Each structure stands twice: as structure tokens, then as C-alpha cells.
Automatic annotation (TrEMBL):
<dbReference type="InterPro" id="IPR004099">
    <property type="entry name" value="Pyr_nucl-diS_OxRdtase_dimer"/>
</dbReference>
<dbReference type="Pfam" id="PF02852">
    <property type="entry name" value="Pyr_redox_dim"/>
</dbReference>
<feature type="domain" description="Pyridine nucleotide-disulphide oxidoreductase dimerisation">
    <location>
        <begin position="352"/>
        <end position="460"/>
    </location>
</feature>
<feature type="binding site">
    <location>
        <begin position="149"/>
        <end position="151"/>
    </location>
    <ligand>
        <name>FAD</name>
    </ligand>
</feature>
<keyword id="KW-0285">Flavoprotein</keyword>
<feature type="disulfide bond" description="Redox-active">
    <location>
        <begin position="47"/>
        <end position="52"/>
    </location>
</feature>
<dbReference type="GO" id="GO:0006103">
    <property type="term" value="P:2-oxoglutarate metabolic process"/>
</dbReference>
<feature type="binding site">
    <location>
        <position position="209"/>
    </location>
    <ligand>
        <name>NAD(+)</name>
    </ligand>
</feature>
<dbReference type="InterPro" id="IPR016156">
    <property type="entry name" value="FAD/NAD-linked_Rdtase_dimer_sf"/>
</dbReference>
<keyword id="KW-0560">Oxidoreductase</keyword>
<dbReference type="InterPro" id="IPR001100">
    <property type="entry name" value="Pyr_nuc-diS_OxRdtase"/>
</dbReference>
<keyword id="KW-0547">Nucleotide-binding</keyword>
<feature type="active site" description="Proton acceptor">
    <location>
        <position position="450"/>
    </location>
</feature>
<dbReference type="InterPro" id="IPR036188">
    <property type="entry name" value="FAD/NAD-bd_sf"/>
</dbReference>
<dbReference type="InterPro" id="IPR012999">
    <property type="entry name" value="Pyr_OxRdtase_I_AS"/>
</dbReference>
<dbReference type="InterPro" id="IPR006258">
    <property type="entry name" value="Lipoamide_DH"/>
</dbReference>
<keyword id="KW-0676">Redox-active center</keyword>
């Protein structure tokens, strides 16, 4: 179609087919809206194709591989030297998982009447977008629009990936050969998750973090077990350390780093991975032509209904201020769809859980003790260790604890946090408890199945009330 020809009309256009975008499009279809979903690459976005799912596939494989060395004490004997990790086989497995999920999203879109267009979208005005599809250009006229273009890895010019030796998170998940040594610039959740996975597979890993500690956005007492495990894995962790210079040749990468205790040091590795943050994809989609305002960091401010300053244009996910989490984007997408369809919907809950897939994993929802006290609450907090849980001992996962943060006067649960095996699944109970405004007694009076890891919540709640069964209560 030539520019200037008649535009294709639709009720809603959704720009971006990631977890937020496709959830919005499917919900709109369910609600009887005509929907065009524009995605320039594969449905599922970064999370499904290049981030969340591939990285968890690697983390799972690395964890299973590491467990082999400890099977002897469980009575399982393997032939000497029989275990090996083959990266190309893992790549094939990863691709099969991603393909299955992406095809599933495509089928769901089709079943709900969503028109999927592959191409790059740009706003031409406040009610039109242009989409480049290969060599063609199509124009769509919409009544309402949802911006769900996500984010991309950030790297300053001095640390820009060349995608061969200096990598971003997408590159490292596409490797077909394990590097013998890997430097990770940035000790946040992406850097630590991937760093621990590669360390388990035999790579020598060095993490360089500018902040005083790893996982700097997480309460330090929750990261203690991760620091211990990183040491056991032989990882070198350099905190309060900045990268001054990075260079590479055909074979190696050399970093010059500086810290106050150690001065200037040289680190030579096979490859370097840059994981120091992400930036929103808002710079090249014509927001100015649509009259949509962005802040100084490139994010799109929205209200509780996910509306931008243009009431008929919505924004969701990583392009909006707040944590860049797939589940947050999906929730926003559903809310935006329902508001467009005239339903009374809004993002009205502060309880967005976080999950960090390190070893051990960390998950939480609500306030930490420090945050609660800073907000003026009188707090009583209690924890229960994994080492006192029967199931944890039976499966040899004794490191970690569950913690409840309780308002002293009302006994209202303010936060729940867990470090240890299966934390990503255990936190669901915490989200529901806080969403229902549960008191600590509600948690303590709920019968939890035995033997399960979920009992750590029961015992932590009982400890807050002074009558835990499997630890000595504080007087």
C-alpha cells in the first residue's frame, strides 16, 4: 500500500506483542473490540523469546547439571566422568520451548479475533499509525491505542557490545559454546542469575558491580545466602568497583577496573557480559506526532487506568515508570483493555511481587522491615529457617528462610519475603495474603500440607505470634 491511500480502520491498535501487548489484545478480542496487534519480531516479545523464558531454561539446566555432583549422598551413583553439558543441545531445547510458547500465543490471538501484523509501527498522528511490513507501508486509523513496545539493554558507549566478545543478555543466551571465563558488568538480578548459571556449568565467572553489594535493589539480609553460594561456586565478586576501560581482540576481553580497597586492576576473560540496566523503547515510534508526553528518562507517565496524557492512548509495561516485570505488564494490559471496553478497571494494588532466580532464589511482596519502619509503622518481624523444615532437609535444600513483616498493633501483614528453594512459587501465597489484607493470624490458622516447603510461611507466622512449633520462640 502506498502512503496516502485509505487507512485500514480498527477499534484499537496495540503496538508491541510482548506479555503486556498480547494480553491486552486477547482481552480486547474477548470484549468484542476489533484489534490490530503490531509486532516487529516474534510474538511474546523479549521475555518469551530472548529473556525470561530462555534464561530460566538455562538456569534450570545449570541447576540440574550441578546437582549431579551431589547425588552420591542420596545413593545415586553415576559412572565416572559420564556427565557433560552440551551447549548446542541446550540451544535446541530452548528453541523448542520458545517456539511452542510463541505458537501458543499466535493461536490464542487468532482464536480471539486479533489481527496480527508483523512490522514496525510509528504514530503518524493522534489517530493513525504507519506500519512498515517488509517493502510495504500500511496505515491504520484507530479509535484507541495501547503502547507496549517494551525495553532494551542499556550500555554506555564505552561498554557498547560488539556481540562477539562483549555481549548483552540476548547474545549470551545464543552462545553455542561455553566460555572458559566470563566477566559480568553489573551484579543486579540479570547478571547474578546468568552468572551463577554459567558458574555451575564450569565457566570461571567474575562479577563487577559499582554498588557496595550485589543485587543492590534488594534488602542486604535477603541476599546473604546468594553471596555465600556464589563463593561456593568459585565466582569472583568485585563490589564497589567501576569499569574504567574495556578492550578486546579476536581472542580475549580486557577490563580495567578500579576500587578504593584494591586500586586499579586488570581482568582478562574470554567474553564479557554487560547487564547494567534497560531503557524504554519510546524514542522512535513517533510519540511526538501523537502528542504523547514522555519524562526525562524516556518513560511514558500513566494513570491508574494506564492512560497517557492523551486519554485515548494507553501505555503499559516497560515503557511506563515502575519495575520492568512481565507480570506487571500483563496486568496493565488487561486493565487497559477493560477500560477501553468500558469496564471499571484499574491498576489499584501496590502488591507487585518480585522474583530473582539466583541460587538460592529470592522472592517477595510488600514492604521489608526497613521500608515499613521508614513509613512510620511499628513492626514485628519474624522468620523461619529452611533448615528446620522437614521437606527442605529431605530434598537437601536447607539454605534460606521465610520472613513475615507485621504491623504491631493490628497484626496486618505488610510484607512477605522468602529466600530458598522454590521461592518463586511460594511467593504466590504471600501475594494473595497481602491482596486480601490478611492478618498474621490468618496465615497461622491456615492448615498447610505436610511435608511441604509451604510450611515455612505457617511457622514464620506462628513465630511472630510467639508459638512456632519447630523453632525456639523468642521471649
Amino acid at each position: 500500500m502506498v502512503v496516502g491511500e485509505i487507512a485500514i480502520e480498527t477499534d484499537v491498535v496495540v503496538i508491541g506483542g510482548g506479555p503486556g501487548g498480547y494480553a491486552a489484545a486477547i482481552r480486547l478480542g474477548q470484549l468484542g473490540q476489533s484489534v490490530v496487534l503490531v509486532e516487529k519480531e516474534a510474538l511474546g516479545g523479549v521475555c518469551l523469546n530472548r529473556g525470561c523464558i530462555p534464561s530460566k531454561a538455562l538456569i534450570h539446566a545449570a541447576g540440574e547439571y550441578e546437582k549431579l555432583a551431589g547425588l552420591g549422598k542420596l545413593g545415586i551413583r553415576l559412572p565416572e566422568g559420564s556427565a557433560a553439558f552440551h551447549m548446542p543441545d541446550w540451544q535446541a531445547w530452548k528453541t523448542s520451548v520458545v517456539t511452542q510458547l510463541s505458537q501458543g500465543v499466535e493461536q490464542l490471538c487468532k482464536a480471539n479475533g486479533v489481527t496480527v501484523v508483523k512490522g514496525s509501527a510509528t504514530f503518524l498522528s493522534a489517530d493513525r499509525i504507519g506500519v512498515e511490513t517488509g517493502g510495504d507501508f500500511e496505515t491504520y486509523k484507530f479509535r484507541q491505542a495501547i503502547i507496549a513496545t517494551g525495553s532494551r539493554p542499556f550500555a554506555p558507549k564505552a561498554l557498547a557490545p560488539d556481540h562477539e566478545r562483549i555481549l548483552d543478555s540476548t547474545d549470551v543466551l545464543n552462545l553455542h559454546e561455553l566460555p572458559k571465563s566470563l566477566a559480568i558488568i553489573g551484579g543486579g538480578y540479570i547478571g547474578m542469575e546468568l552468572g551463577m548459571a554459567f558458574a555451575k556449568l564450569g565457566t570461571s565467572v567474575t562479577v563487577v558491580e559499582a554498588a557496595p553489594g550485589i543485587l543492590p535493589q534488594t534488602a542486604p539480609h535477603l541476599t546473604q545466602e546468594v553471596r555465600k553460594q556464589a563463593k561456593k561456586l568459585g565466582m569472583t565478586i568485585k563490589t564497589a568497583t567501576k569499569v574504567e576501560e574495556i578492550s578486546h581482540n579476536a581472542d580475549q576481553v580486557e577490563l580495567t577496573v578500579f576500587s578504593e580497597p584494591h586500586g586499579r586492576e586488570q581482568i582478562t576473560v574470554d567474553k564479557a557480559l554487560v547487564t547494567i540496566g534497560r531503557v524504554p523503547n519510546t524514542g522512535d515510534i513517533g510519540l511526538g506526532q501523537a502528542g504523547v508526553v514522555i519524562d526525562e528518562k524516556g518513560y511514558i507517565p500513566v494513570d491508574a487506568a494506564c492512560r497517557t496524557n492523551q486519554p485515548h492512548i494507553f501505555a503499559i509495561g516497560d515503557v511506563t515508570p515502575g519495575p520492568a516485570l512481565a507480570h506487571r505488564a500483563a496486568k496493565q494490559g488487561i486493565v487497559a483493555a477493560e477500560v477501553i471496553a468500558g469496564l471499571p478497571s484499574s491498576v489499584d494494588s501496590p502488591y507487585v511481587p518480585y522474583v530473582i532466580f539466583t541460587d538460592p532464589p529470592i522472592a517477595g511482596v510488600g514492604l521489608t522491615r526497613e521500608e515499613a519502619e521508614a513509613q512510620g509503622y511499628r513492626v514485628m518481624a519474624s522468620s523461619f529457617p529452611y533448615r528446620a523444615n522437614g521437606k527442605a532437609l529431605a530434598i537437601d535444600e536447607r539454605e534460606g528462610f521465610a520472613e513475615v513483616i507485621v504491623e504491631e498493633e493490628t497484626h496486618l501483614l505488610l510484607g512477605m519475603h522468602v529466600v530458598g528453594a522454590d521461592a518463586p512459587n511460594l511467593i504466590g501465597e504471600g501475594v494473595l495474603a497481602l491482596e486480601l489484607a490478611a492478618r498474621v493470624e490468618d496465615l497461622a490458622l491456615t492448615i498447610h500440607p505436610h511435608p511441604t516447603l509451604s510450611e515455612v510461611w505457617l511457622e514464620a507466622a506462628e513465630a511472630a505470634l510467639g508459638h512456632a512449633i519447630h523453632i525456639v520462640n523468642k521471649k
